[in-house]
Amino acid sequence: MKTLTEAEQKFLDHDWVNDKKWKLYLSNLYPSPSIHNIEKYKKKYFQKNVDKNLDVNASFGNEAVKEETPQPPNSQAYGNKGYTYSGQVPLMTFFFSTFVLCVSLFYFVLLSLNISLYKKMATFMSLSYFCAFLSLLYTDYKTQKHNFSLVQFFSSEKGQYLSYSMILFFIKDAVLIFLPIFFTLLITTYLMYKQIKPLLPPAIQRNYYLNKVVSYLDQTILNVYLMRANIEIYNLVFIVICLFMKRVSLLNLIIYLHFFKLKYSSSDSYFHACYAKNGEMIRQCLSHPMVPKAFLNVFNKVSHYFNAYLSYRRR
User: Fold this and answer.
1) 13-35 exposure pattern, b = at least 16 Cβ within 10 A, e = fewer
2) Where are the bilayer-spanning segments (predicted)?
């Protein structure tokens, strides 16, 4: 067995989960590294920012790295154990989720063009997303009866977006609000399709357009995660602005803050990376010589108290 150098041991012991600079570095990479080659970017980052003695070309104990390679949160249901979907329930959930996604695209077009038909569809769309995540809850229950727990579900990403769907009943005319849950359902449906594909009729499996969409998602799925994370952060600002314009109520802001806090306390590395990146961008803008220093001080104070709120846990 190869003896590790001091730099290699430090690399293996590094706390990647809580390294905000690493998350910021990861979010700035374009195109986003794939799950399979992210290790080399870790080594480059570590050599540049932590220990320059690390040999980035050396292969050593990759399996011992404390933080697992960032994976799409939905690719594994709970912890490290992925679901194996089988039977009729996942198929029904898959087709219903696909239906909701397709109708959503039509709804987004109506909203963008400000066609009044969207007002008649608004409640239906909100209810559809709520039912879609309820169906995912039922699917998880049917698939993992012995290991299923409501506490686990509601602390998972699907549970977070089930609570997020509540806000859709109050804000029905903003595509920006719909996009995070749309992307989440898209990711979940894509990952589910990967597992249940053998159960589908041959005509669907061989469908050219469906395979084209899946192939495209294979290449861009990490970008979808980053896009969703950024939109979730911008939505908070959007809702605050809408509150001052009296387009939303204080209750809507409270619901979204609850969701935002759940995301902040989750292990979603994409969300944390985008959150850190956007904060750094604002600080850089406010640090410009032409901007009064008071603005930067106010932002630092507000961000400090906001982070304290997000980090607060009841004992």
Assistant:
1) ebebeebeebbbbbbeeeebbee
2) 91-110, 122-141, 161-187, 233-257
CA distance 58 to 11: 12
Q: Where are the domains of the chain?
A: 15-50, 90-266, 267-314
Instruction: Tokens for 196, please give them.
Output: 């249940």
Residue 222's H or E segment, with its range, is helix 208-244
- Could you give the CA distance from residue 81 to residue 31 in angstroms, rounded to a whole number? 28
Question: pLDDT digits over 48-104, tens only?
Answer: 888 888 887 777 654 443 344 444 444 443 333 445 565 677 888 899 999 999 999
Task: Please work out, in degrees rounded to the nearest 5, the angle formed at the alpha carbon of residue 163 by the alpha carbons of 68 and 156.
Answer: 20
Give residue for tokens 């005319």.
173
Nearest to 188 by CA among 94, 47, 69: 94
Angle at Cα 255 formed by Cα 252 and Cα 259, nearest 5°?
135
Sorted by sequence, the CB contacts under 8 Å of residue 255 that are 6+ apart come out as 163, 166, 167, 170
The predicted structure's pLDDT at residue 314: 59
Nearest Cα to Cα of residue 12 among 42, 36, 33: 42
* pLDDT band per the 50, 70, 90 thresholds, residue 198: confident
Residue 60: Cβ within 10 Å count: 17
CB count in 10 Å sphere of residue 138: 13
pTM above 0.90, yes or no: no
d(CA 157, CA 160): 5
Q: Which of 132, 129, 128, 125 is nearest to 110 (CA)?
A: 125
Residue 109 is which amino acid?
V
In the block, tokens 């390294």 appear at: 19
Matching residue, tokens 């589910």: 192
